[in-house]
């Protein structure tokens, strides 16, 4: 790990601490528990790798932590959908079907079309996992707009931060697949900088005070 | 490469939809759905539709009187006024149809409407569209889909009538003595009134569906909407 990479990793760590503190102080932790777990998992992974690199900056640990992050990303998308649609039974039925179709399609794709997951084949299997997570979030966003379901600013910020970062990550993996491991350090640094940007975006959203309560509008169509 | 393309499309769709998402507007819409004074809104819409129809018909009759009195320039001017009334009324109907499409997705069940029929219409294009919609209506299962089919037909109908009205007014300006454009305009106006009757029936079905949510259920839902999602 280069010194620059280490510096960015430390900055990400500080950002994650600010983000977690903001979530606790502003009472946003309970708005998406799996996101809190995801941030905590990233913080633990980052701390272990930066403080004991000789033990944790290894391919096996990378695969392990990436597996945990992937599961949590899927869980975030599912929890956001559940929280958005739980109050609307009609829309929730449709959302459940859409989520199921995406999860089954993603699972079949990963099971049949990608090699067994290991660090050396990560460029083959990891993009599929990330794409599935992006589409789970996208489906939620499309359903929210289609059914005019009200979601909070915090849930919106989570989705608006996570999806673009995942796109950067897929691009990183595609470059790795196309150009091999020669570019790994440079591209990893760009990926880390992108993640730092996302963490700062989330931290800002987490610390932002809630807007004043919604004032009852006159009963005329706002369409 | 496939994953990169799929992720890019997904990410762009997400950023576009959530970037344009307006929580305050969504809450306002739910506030309207849960508190709309159905009967007053229905009465006010009925008056509005009747007024538009009466204005357009009055203008058309005045234009025909002027034409019979050989005051051709006056007749054309008043016919243009009738067209203008229809244009404004049509824009109002299209805006309301779009809003009804949004609200129809927000309610769980919609009171069923009868299958579209060509019988009330006089124009060939509108008759064909209504007959086709009647066929599609039989293939659809859900009342929400059938309701939205009605909205599509009504929107299409307004556009057909307006286009026909513009053509008829242009033809009457070019050849004021010919009876055909005047008859076509009157036919369009009659179709517009028939569309308005269906427009009102659709609005009534939607309003009845909104009022079907009981008061306790409305309050509970409103609390969940404004509470849990913050």
Explained architecture:
- The complex is a heterodimer of chains A (about 220) and B (about 230).
- The radius of gyration of chain A is 19 Å and the shape is globular.
- With about 220 residues, chain A is an all-alpha fold.
- Chain B is mostly helical and about 230 residues long.
- The longest helix of chain B is centred in the middle third of the chain and has 35 residues.
- Chains A and B meet through helix 5, helix 6 and helix 7 of A and helix 1, helix 2, helix 4 and helix 8 of B.
Task: Based on the model shown, name its key terms.
heterodimer, A: 8 helices, B: 230 residues, mainly alpha
Order of helices and strands of chain A: HHHHHHHH
Tally of helical runs of chain A: 8
Query: Biggest interface, which chains?
Result: A-B, 52 and 47 residues
Number of strands of chain A: 0
Gyration radius of chain A (Cα, Å) is 19 Å
Look at the structure and give the mean pLDDT of chain B: 83
Fraction of residues in β-strands of chain B:
under 5%
Portion in helices of chain B: over 70%
Largest sheet descriptor of chain A: none
| Class derived from helix and strand content of chain B | mainly alpha
Share of residues in strands of chain A: under 5%
How many beta-strand segments of chain B? 0
Major sheet summary line of chain B: none
Please identify the structural class of chain A as seen in this structure: mainly alpha
Pattern of helices and strands of chain B: HHHHHHHH
The helicity of chain A comes to over 70%
Rounded Rg of chain B? 22 Å
Q: What is the fold's blueprint, element by element?
A:
The complex is a heterodimer of chains A (223) and B (230).
Chain A: H1 3-25, H2 33-51, H3 53-56, H4 59-85, H5 89-113, H6 122-146, H7 153-179, H8 184-207
Helix pairs in contact in A: 1-2, 1-8, 2-4, 4-5, 4-6, 5-6, 6-7, 7-8
Chain B: H1 2-20, H2 23-35, H3 38-68, H4 72-106, H5 124-139, H6 143-174, H7 180-211, H8 215-227
